Amino acid sequence: MDKNEFKFLVDSSSDVPKFRQLIESVNNAISDKRLNVGDHLPSVNKVCNEYKLSRDTVFKAYTLLKEQGVIQSVPNKGYFIAKEIRRVFLFLDTFKAYKEVLYDSFFKNLPDNVIADVHFHHYNPGVFRKQIEESIGKYAKYVVMPFDHPSMEDSLRLLPEEKLLLIDWKIYDTPTSNVLYQDFGQPINDELKKAMNRIRKYKKLTFVYPEFTNHPYDSVDYFLRFCRKHKINCEVIDDSSHFEIEKGVGYISVSDRILGIFLEQTREKGLEPGEDVGFISYNETPMKKFIYKGITVLSTDFKQMGMKAAEFVAHDAPMRLCIPTHLKLRESF
Length: 333
Hints:
Layout: H1 18-31, E1 40-41, H2 44-51, H3 55-67, E2 71-74, E3 78-81, E4 86-92, H4 97-108, E5 114-120, H5 125-135, E6 141-144, H6 152-156, E7 164-168, E8 178-181, H7 186-192, H8 196-199, E9 204-208, H9 218-229, E10 234-237, E11 249-253, H10 256-269, E12 278-282, E13 296-300, H11 302-314, E14 320-322, E15 325-328
Parallel strand pairs: 4-5, 4-6, 6-7, 7-8, 8-14, 9-10, 9-11, 11-12, 12-13
Antiparallel strand pairs: 1-3, 2-3, 13-15
């Protein structure tokens, strides 16, 4: 590239500091392949004169880019692009313990030349829309965890489909969407069948689906189908405000808050988990195998999900993949 060809994007009315705008201009140009390894950047003096910026501002931007390994300086020749940088938009719902597993796996498997910006929407459609709008055109890839809301489809349409990966929940996808998901329904049937001997020792199976959860209701639907098919006495609790455990009942819940209440009440009532009462918890975390002799979990592999999401970022190939969900039997059930 001729040294005069690259143009910085500097908005004097923006709240973003000028040196940061210069850095973003370079990173975005590399992500979009408008700048390639070996390309020459304008000199500090040229940028100062053309964009009416102070020497300190431009020098600060170039120095930070050098520290990041993005550019290098050659005496008497100027500044050159040293490596290809790709910026990625990672958009999660919340930062729970099991999401931390996904997050860590994603970052550990990213190529060295990828910078990921992490954002959280907390199931707020307004926040979701605003973050999506502000991200348009800034990233090489978008890894987004959607949720069920009428505005979701329109918001997702703002992003280029070939650069977008929907993760965790297969919702609002199209036949050509990239999607990396878990099945919240069928594994309830398939995996609980493997624990039938343990299930039969309980007089009732209760699914606690608290009012504050955003977990897909598919899990409850398939739970009820499973219980009807196998003639198991069952119940669904959707108001957890007066949740009280009962001896002889096995519980399933999508909430770690309910797990905490369950363990507290077993201690208060002198009941032994896995003997007097049972508990199956959704979503594996590093600690659940150690809590109270081990908590039985029904979970997808979030480590694999993070690894595959990083694979999508690293390669320009479509992805449609379901990460299996498995039951891990431990002492709590």
